[in-house]
Specification:
By secondary structure, the chain is mostly beta strands. The protein contains one helix and 23 strands.
């Protein structure tokens, strides 16, 4: 956990990790919640979970939407990471996937993969764990929407080969979906693609 905190501190200090790879070498348990940077801090490198698990036992659930996600703004690659979330915490893996790639990641428990995605790729991701994803506990650009993989998708987003297992419940106010809560590109030329 101490290494993850140092990584978070460097992001908040303006380090983007562009052209660099950060690799998890063991499972990590977060006993006290914190985010990897804040909403203006952008990750541009590669974060490789190495197939390891990040267990979230506690998180700042009283904060804004970006504080309810592990990564804040991703323009790089987040891959091969499993995040287990304690029931009721409602934490996303990434708040804003801004042209980045999220690949081969899994979220188990009370959370989802991405809250807002613009011009990014989300592929080979899974949501499981028998818990619920509830719009009452999160905010997105369109805070009425909640989705198991991506809550709000637009502007060239591609979602490929992702799965929400049958033991997950999605609860939304106006818009809810297993894979995507709402598809909302800002122009006709920026279609959203969802495929196997």
């Amino acid at each position: 956990e101490a290494d993850l905190r140092r990584f978070s501190w460097t992001l908040q200090s303006g380090v983007t990790y562009e052209g660099q790879t950060v690799t998890m070498t063991e499972d990590i348990e977060m006993s006290t919640g914190f985010t990897l940077g804040d909403s203006i801090d952008t990750f541009k490198g590669t974060f490789d979970g190495g197939g390891h698990t990040l267990t979230v036992r506690d998180f700042n659930v009283s904060g804004s939407a970006d504080e309810r996600a592990l990564f804040q703004r991703n323009q790089g690659v987040i891959q091969n990471l499993k995040m287990e979330v304690e029931p009721g915490l409602q934490v996303a893996l990434c708040y804003w996937n801004d042209g980045g790639t999220i690949s081969g990641c899994a979220v188990e428990g009370s959370g989802n993969v991405v809250l807002t995605c613009r011009s990014g790729l989300v592929e080979n991701c899974v949501l499981s764990g028998g818990d619920s994803v509830d719009a009452a506990n999160v905010e997105t650009l369109y805070d009425q929407a909640i989705g198991g993989i991506v809550s709000s998708a637009g502007d060239g987003t591609v979602i490929r080969n992702c799965t929400v297992e049958e033991d997950v419940t999605i609860r939304g106010w106006l818009y809810a979906g297993g894979i995507v809560g709402i598809v909302n590109p800002t122009s006709a030329g920026d279609a959203v693609t969802i495929e196997n």
